[in-house]
Design a protein that fits this description.
This protein is an alpha/beta fold. The protein has two domains: 179 residues, D-Maltodextrin-Binding Protein, domain 2 (3-Layer(aba) Sandwich); 94 residues, Periplasmic binding protein-like II (D-Maltodextrin-Binding Protein, domain 2). The protein has eleven helices and twelve strands. The strands form two sheets. Strands 1-3-2-4-11-5-12 form a seven-stranded mixed sheet, sandwiched between helices. The chain has a five-stranded mixed sheet with strand order 8-7-9-6-10. Helix 5 links the parallel strand 7 and strand 8.
Length: 290
């Protein structure tokens, strides 16, 4: 398994610095691994709203359909903001949840959620400025307005804000735009001097949009967003879900579905190996629960 942990040098430096839109698909069919079951309770699948609710539903609907056709009916729940999404998994409502790496830490602490799969590609956060603007270095952002998707978006906000504070001792005005798309629009409109984003989300933008932005900082490669499961979901159902998703990624006709949810090359993961190390960052002081 490819590891995306913090480089030791960065870990040392960090340690040293002290609306719900719901759609239902429930297709009683043959299960992938368990015995065929009819009338099975639909699993509640919550996904972090990196983009608009309509876009997130479009990307995840084929996954929900595939699970349902394999005997694992799911209810897809997409929220309009990351804050409302956090309430979903912190209350333990979700059976399945696609969430950022530090949300994984929070979910594990709160209800012992366990990650099943994540993509082989590491997660990278980027700090963006206008390509034709005056900002070339982080130090030039002192006292400026910087937009982030949400306080607890990990690579796009938590990690970058901690770096700005611990490494650069930078004071700035933080603005939270609810999702990644709104965040970069703040820079394009000139309302913010910089924006924190995730590289894979930036890559979903049209080339002409990307050309208007310049990256002045990139985080190390980190363990990416996992699909996690609540302990109440049985081992056999977990295995069946894993089998379905790995099958979608392996089949040419459905690979695009997995790419749409940022897992074109899913690999097995575990909390101890890939997410427990984030506990050592001690960035809880940057977490803001609304």
């Amino acid at each position: 398994m490819k590891k995306h942990l913090l480089p030791s040098s960065i870990r040392r430096s960090m340690l040293g610095a002290g609306i719900g839109l719901a759609a239902h698909w429930a297709l009683p069919a043959i299960a992938a691994t368990p015995q065929p079951t009819t009338g099975r309770r639909a699993l509640r699948l919550a996904v972090v709203p990196q983009l608009t609710a309509i876009e997130m539903s479009r990307y995840w609907s084929p996954i929900v359909d595939a699970l349902g056709q394999s005997g694992i009916p799911c209810e897809l729940v997409v929220y309009p903001s990351i804050a409302s999404f956090e309430a979903e998994f912190l209350s333990g409502k979700a059976d399945l949840v696609f969430l950022n790496p530090y949300h994984m830490v929070m979910a594990h602490r709160a209800h012992r959620y366990e990650p099943l799969l994540h993509d082989a590609r590491g997660l990278e956060g980027v700090l963006l400025v206008s390509a034709d603007g005056p900002i070339e270095r982080i130090e030039q952002l002192k006292g400026q307005r910087i937009s982030f998707p949400a306080p607890n978006a990990f690579a796009a906000s938590l990690y970058i804000r901690s770096v700005l504070d611990v490494k650069h001792h930078l004071s700035f005005e933080a603005h939270y735009a609810q999702n990644h798309r709104n965040t970069l629009r703040q820079v394009l409109l000139g309302d913010s001097m910089a924006a924190g984003l995730v590289k894979t989300t930036l890559e979903k933008e049209a080339p002409e949009v990307q050309q208007k932005l310049r990256t002045i900082y990139t985080t190390p490669s980190l363990a990416p967003h996992p699909l996690a499961v609540h302990p109440r979901v049985s081992r056999s159902v977990r295995n069946a879900i894993t089998e379905v998703l790995l099958g979608l990624a392996a089949a040419p006709q459905t690979q695009a579905h997995m790419a749409g949810i940022q897992m074109p090359n899913p690999v097995l993961t575990s909390y101890a190996t890939d997410y427990a190390p984030f506990e050592q960052l001690h960035i809880d002081k940057y977490v803001i629960l609304e």
